[in-house]
Design brief:
Blueprint: E1 2-6, H1 11-20, E2 25-29, H2 39-49, E3 53-56, H3 70-90, E4 94-100, H4 125-140, E5 144-149, E6 152-153, H5 159-169, E7 172-176, E8 180-181, E9 184-185, H6 186-199, E10 204-207, E11 214-215, H7 216-227, E12 232-236, H8 256-259, H9 268-279
Parallel strand pairs: 1-2, 1-3, 3-4, 4-5, 5-10, 6-9, 7-12
Antiparallel strand pairs: 8-11
Helix pairs in contact: 1-6, 2-3, 3-4, 5-7, 7-9
Bound molecules: NADP nicotinamide-adenine-dinucleotide phosphate.
NADP nicotinamide-adenine-dinucleotide phosphate binds at residues 6-7, 9-12, 31, 35-37, 57-61, 76, 80, 98, 100, 130, 149-152, 156.
Length: 281
């Protein structure tokens, strides 16, 4: 298969390149090679390359900064996917796009997880621009997969790396107990994408995180436990831990739709163990 991977220096992109490197022709573009916000460049590039699949790993992901950079976030997260959707559609390519748990409001009972088609109510600029990206794809492209993921970590700046660093430097760290979700290893998300393509599952929107739910507090305890880090984890609340963008309190995503397609999704604890084995080498 010929696969175009956009935003190719990003954290997920690294895992996607690795997952698809054998038996495929990969065309990897960073922002200098293809800026997805430019509609003409995007159409010209896709028309020239004629990929079977476009895996869009390009995004504006600075959740707090987005509160002040709405125009830029909208350009990258909404206009970019629209440009790719139009170009994919014109060239009979399938667009694979990554979205987020932040499209939901997060006020659901913590014993429940969001299904794909539940009402969206983003509470951040980032979430709202990502929702516009989803809508632009659905409205402009016939062959698409939108995978909503969450709490992503891998080869790039991420929560696990931050906690490992803080755990070494400090005697204690304060972590929120009232945000619920699923940490997701980029390697596992890339593999889920590969399984979906391989199985040729129906086009549409899917939730794609590791299995199981936790809080940032419990996840941090697990990180320190596995890495044998001697640092106390002090519980705090989202209200006390101030950030520019409010986080959804419950962003648990149900994976029933993907599981029903026979996709294998590892547990988040298993994923964390595999990640830390590499990270702590
Ligand atoms: N990280 C998370 O916790 C998380 C959670 C849920 C969903 N997601 C979604 O998962 C996907 C992958 O996230 P990630 O963490 O791998 O993101 P990332 O590491 O921030 O990578 C995004 C990449 O996109 C590039 N980019 C920015 N603007 C571009 C443009 N106009 N044209 C082409 N490339 C551009 C960036 O380049 P520069 O670095 O040069 O700007 C960067 O290499 C995103 O769609 C994100 O919204 C992430």
């Amino acid at each position: 298969m010929k696969i175009l991977i956009t935003g190719s220096n990003g954290m997920l992109a690294k895992a996607v390149k690795d997952e698809f490197k054998d038996n495929n022709e990969l065309i990897c573009t960073d922002v200098a090679e293809l800026d997805i916000t430019n509609s003409n460049d995007t159409m010209d590039f896709v028309t020239k390359v004629r990929p079977d699949y476009i895996i869009n790993c390009a995004a504006y992901t600075a959740v707090d900064k987005a509160e002040e950079q709405e125009d830029l976030a909208e350009k990258v997260n909404a206009i970019g996917p629209r440009n790719l959707a139009i170009a994919a559609n014109a060239n009979n390519a399938t667009l694979v796009h990554i979205s987020t748990d932040y499209v939901f409001g997060g006020d659901k009972d913590i014993n429940e997880a969001y299904l794909e088609d539940e009402p969206k109510a983003p509470i951040t600029v980032y979430g709202s621009t990502k929702l516009h990206g989803e809508e632009n794809i659905i409205n402009n492209c016939k062959k698409y997969y939108i995978f909503r993921t969450a709490w992503l970590y891998g080869d790039g700046n991420n929560f696990v790396r931050t906690m490992l660093k803080l755990g070494k430097e400090k005697e204690e760290v304060s972590v929120v107990t009232d945000e619920h979700g699923s940490p997701t290893y980029a390697v596992d998300l890339a593999n889920i994408i590969a399984q979906a393509i391989e199985k040729d599952i129906p086009y549409g929107v899917y939730h794609a995180t590791n299995q199981g739910f936790t809080t940032w507090y419990d996840f941090t305890k697990k990180i320190f436990d596995i890495s044998k880090t001697d640092c106390k984890v002090v519980p705090t609340t989202a209200k006390e831990f101030k950030r520019a963008a409010k986080r959804p309190s419950n962003s648990q995503l149900s994976k029933e739709k993907l599981l029903a397609q026979g996709i294998n999704i590892p547990e988040y604890t298993n994923a964390l163990e595999r990640y830390l084995k590499i990270e702590l080498q």
